[in-house]
């Protein structure tokens, strides 16, 4: 077996294009020339930053928050540690007016400083340098579990076009969906709940390849088989315009080493062609996760909601992903609750501070937790909520003010973990899998 084409195995690209066309049902089928095979969503985020950003010319990385915390180091490694900006969520998925206001300020500041052209990277025919990057997990978000509305997706594309921004979305949970009651209907579970932002960019207001555009578009989708087949396959896909997809394939590591995951790509192509992967999603993953989600939510409603805990977007017709986001009563400090749960009842949960954008105090989550229902069996999920409720009851029974005692040290530890300063994975990630969350 040789290195393989830069774009990736053609059989897999053709199979992915057909599979995505069936699931997302966009206006016009998706063509293989719009897809590059990648080494997964995380690896490809790094490739996108290498090819399409300049650490000086690119003004900011705008991150919808709370955010997937392990993406922070990828931005940091690409030279953007001082340019990360948090964008709050709202009930429709992103506070669009906040982004519009702040991105204009950033652009005005850049122009006042004479930042008008890339300084560190040469001009290349297969790439361009975007002025801004907007990063989001718009469907069943990690960590908040929210889904961005179609209206917000369209508004986001308009802002990206106005300010020469690239929207990079991790679309890794889209196929993991079900109704809130957990009753799976195959017709509903095999069709996307909302168009991807890359598909909105492709068709909205003349489309990404409209007259006057540069052909690269303003949105890229990061897809991955990690959540639906297995993390060890290390294979994903990146749809965009034809010009953008080719640019991703020309990242130096792919040009030197060949297509990522070339051998495994041929295996996955067969699974897609034979319909076995889709069957695994609809017959195994969706029903299993739906039962676990329903179990977790029932336990939350029974044990935590009466204690003042609340959840976002409770009126959705379709839910999915891996996570549930909890907002605690405001007198309960989440890092302290997390520590007490670990120390007193052997329960690990992820506190909201882990998902704060480093260096930006705009979006703080001192009273929030993220729970994962994907790993554990149903009986352990219910037991975990019962244990969490016991800890929360004990804290609520304490005199007001005592819960804030010793929280500065806990908060500092959480901030260090979110910045990657703590050796090994952050609490609530790999360690959590050996227990509950």
From TrEMBL:
Report any Pfam family annotated for this entry. Answer: Aminotran_1_2
Segments of this protein annotated with the region Disordered = 403-437
List residues of the Aminotransferase class I/classII large domain: 3-388
Q: State if Transferase is listed as a keyword.
A: yes
Keywords carried by this UniProt record: Transferase
Q: What GO MF terms are annotated? A: 2-aminoadipate transaminase activity; pyridoxal phosphate binding
Q: Where is the signal peptide?
A: none
Q: What is this protein called?
A: PLP-dependent transferase
Q: Which organism is it from?
A: Tothia fuscella
